[in-house]
Design a protein that fits this description.
The chain has 589 residues and is α+β, with helices and mostly antiparallel strands. The chain is built from 16 helices and 32 strands. It has three domains: 271 residues, Bira Bifunctional Protein, Domain 2 (BirA Bifunctional Protein, domain 2, 2-Layer Sandwich); 135 residues, YbaK protein (Alpha-Beta Complex); 97 residues, Anticodon-binding domain (Rossmann fold). It binds adenosine-5'-triphosphate and magnesium ion (MG).
Amino acid sequence: MITRWSQTLIPTLRQDPSEAEVPSHRLMLRSGLIRQLAAGLYTYLPLGWRSLHKAIEIIRQEMNAAGSVEMFMPALEPIELFAGTGRDVAYGDDLFTLTDRRGHRNALAPTHEEVITEALAASVESHRQLPLNLYQIQTKFRDEPRPRFGVLRSREFIMKDAYSFHVTVDGPGGLDATYERMYQAYCRIFDRCGLTYETVEAESGPIGGSASHEFMVICSTGEDTVYKSDKGNYAANVEKCEIGPRAWSFDPPDPPTESAGDLETVHTPDLPGIDLVAAFLKITPDRMLKTLVCSSDNGWILAVLRGDHDLNLGKLKTACESAVQLADEKAARDAGFAVGFVSPAVAKTITVARIVIDPDAAQSRDWVTGADRIDYHVRNFQWRRELGELLDGDTVRVADIRNAIDGDPSPRDDGGVLRAERGIEVGHVFKLGTKYSEAMGFTVLDENQKSRLVIMGCYGIGPGRILAAAIETNHDDDGIIWPAPIAPYTVHVVTIKLDEAGSKALDTLLANLDAAGIDVLVDDRPERPGPKFKDADLIGCPIRLTIGAKSLAENAVEFKLRCAARESAELIKLDAVADRCLEVAGGGR
Ligand code: ATP
Ligand code: MG
């Protein structure tokens, strides 16, 4: 494939676009790969589309090789389909909805679990028709609260989404086997795209265990936080990351090392937030207890954390063995909680179902905490003194309910320490279990003619994020340095003032490259060499060939790798160029 610059659209920019916060966004705009239409909506211009297409082809090949079969579903779907699984509510404002001319409400699909489950439920009746693993490469819509970073978090984007269907979890044809195959296919896809990535445990579905993994490209601009043990045997995202054992005690050592001060009430008006209260009281937030009022089917739940720590709602749910959410503020106030000034001692006056205390907060020391009175805090809160025997009853439970932080002990309990890193999630594999088959009544008859809910898995990849993540981790001050397999073109030819003979030599060279299956962008603009070289560096194709009177005098072109220093440019004879390009960049016929 040969493309001449003069015949395509590559609107490179000299200046950095002001709206771009991260390198990939800036470079994708500057090198003319994409153009923003509106917040979170991007046109893939010819260069960007070629790269995206290459990533998609790699995904398609590996999915096919792993036994998944391609299909295609509509992006527009009746809202009832979402209402049936409760996802119209669960997705909330992220779901794009629209009303058609007949007054029917529809959604633009953020993913396709419902659509595919509906299709299979209508045509699969027997266990003999399973397992099945189907995928599509199609546009998704999500009204993200903060579309940003270009195609990394956009509101319309292409996704490869695969869904698998099984009668069992274990054994041949079971969910676990397909999950493993998809996991391995993902590794091959990201390897082939030239990405350096990590797999991390993510929040698991109803099946539990390590039933979900995210594929993360580690880079400082990533939106996700992941934690890795310095022993190299554990990695998880912040939602999932467990923390190793931490010692705790409500009771002071005997004899006490310091004497507890009296409980002292302090007036703390107009100080929204723990940091301001701490500054006012001249302490650090880690000296404070944070008591969050949550609600559950069983009643109120108090979650108590150290002031500098963040609640992990998933962990709180696990600790309570039930659905828990942060309480509605008005309802909590109506029930008598001094929201914003709550202390664990409130459990002495308002009945709560449970007090769950993080181990770091379950320490015997003098704490500052709310006074259960608006605009007041207390100093010298002592667990044993303030709660007494309540601490020993069934209401109180000490459990890991906070997000991990850098330096925490690894859950492997082997002396490892968790270290925080930032990452871009490029793919996700997930054991769904029976969530959708149950909601949509998708059953099959097993070998004993018994009706069974179908077990599902789902597997997503964002090709746009592959490009952006590749750029985030492969660029320099001059521009992008593409991994060859997803570069818009393998070779970027810069022409310098060619006469008639030179143009003929160029045509022969291009014919040779084309015959070898190498894709080439030819900068045939009547520009000076300087700006052309600048654009070549910006666009970042792996190989730059320069052809002009000087090189042609030697019957050669100047050959330079994008990733190599300027001085490394060398002259290569015209008839040896194609082989050299194949040798360096791979591919071809
Ligand atoms: P995130 O947590 O980053 O919002 P997600 O968990 O919502 O991602 P999934 O629903 O698992 O993502 O979607 C599968 C894949 O689709 C992701 O791994 C990612 O590569 C891609 N993706 C998700 N949301 C977006 C988006 N707004 N823009 C571009 N790609 C996206
Ligand atoms: Mg999301």
